[in-house]
Every structure is written in C-alpha cells, then in structure tokens.
Amino acid sequence: MAEKRKTNKKILFLAIWKSRWYILKYYPKMIYMANHPEKYTEDERYEYTLKLINFLLKACDVKTSVYGEENIPAEDGFLLCSNHQEKFDPLVIWKVFPRRIGVVVNDTACHRPFIREVCLLISSLKLFQNDMHSMVDVITRLTAELTNKRNYMIFPEGWYEEDPFTLSEFKGGCFKSVIRSKAPILPVALIDSYKLFKNGVQPPYEIKIHFLKPISYDEYKDLKTVDIAALVRERIQAAVNEFQKV
Prior knowledge:
9 helices; 7-stranded mixed beta sheet; globular; alpha/beta
C-alpha cells in the first residue's frame, strides 16, 4: 500500500509538472466558477469542467476505448452503475459519456484540490459515510433528480479495491432511488483503470469502458434492493471476467 501511494504521488506530480502552465491559466477560473456558480449556466460549468478533466487525463497519458455505446438509454433519467478500480474512474466516465451526468460521491473525496471544484461545478450528491441522515437525504434527492430526467453515476462498491478481478458486494441502498423513480439502470464495466497507479505499469494507460445492456424497471420491479444490487453486480462481474486481463 505504501508503495502504491508513492507511485500515485509520482504520477500525479509528473502530470502536474507537465501541465503547470495550463493549470496556471485555467485552474484559477475553475475555482472562481465553483465559488460563483450563479454567474454561469449549468452547461457552461459542465463544459469547462470537462475541458480540464480531459486535459488532466491527457497529462497522465490516459487513453480510453468505449464499447457498447448503443446501450446508453435514449431517454435521460437513468442511473449508471459501475465497478470501481481507481480514484480517476468518475473522470474517465465523464470524459467519454456523450451526455450530461452527475455523480453520487463520498464526501471525503470532495476535499481534494480539483476534485473539490469538479464536485461543485458538476451536479453531485455528497454522501457522508455512516451518517443515516445523509443517506436518507441523498436517496430523496437522487429520486427527485432521476424523476426529473437527470442522469447520475454511482459506484455501489463504495470504494475501489486492490483486486481488479473480483467486485466487492454492491450496497442495496444505492438502488432505493431507482425503485422509487422507476429509472433504468445502466451497468458499466471499467477495465484496466487500476493500472493507472499500479507500480511497474508504463504509460500510456488504456482504460476500456463497456456500457452493458440497461436493466429496465420491468426487469427489477419485483426485486428487493439487495437483489437488484446482486443482479447489477452479476452483470458487471461477467463483463470483468470476460474482458479484464492481467
């Protein structure tokens, strides 16, 4: 773990050094926009954030390949559920996703520079771990957002794991909002994102994003939340088994 943290810092330091002039030029405006969101439209905030996300991933030598884009529901108001291999996973999805999408995120991640501004500029629902009031609040707000035809992504494992081949248990509470809003679920399998900060793996880093067949309300309406979580995990795990190599 200590070696991985050392590798993380090295990669991030090199990315920051390579893009220092870009950061000096554009990051201050990102901070200003985050502190004064009322001065910009939602589209302006989203597009500016995507611009910096794309630059950061480019500076880290991240390449992306997308599969199954035809599986993305035509109508907005769905919940994207993905496995979680690394801290950059939401950024990778934002980079390739063709439409606007928010995120349900652990509050601890929202205090890091850059990620803090991303969470302020792009629709995000902050979840405080082990705080029941926060969980109820996020479920209520996410239900309203999905009902109002806004898209969100969530990582039902809760955190990324060391083992990229075996998904952790998906938390049933992540799916209470889809039952209440009758929203489709879009399973996503991220492949090889763990290699970005893996010691010994050399750039460029190719991350593969597989959009799987969506799960409609009719398919899960008679299931309990824990069973929906198991169903979604099973679909993503099958894709990981097929596509994740050493």
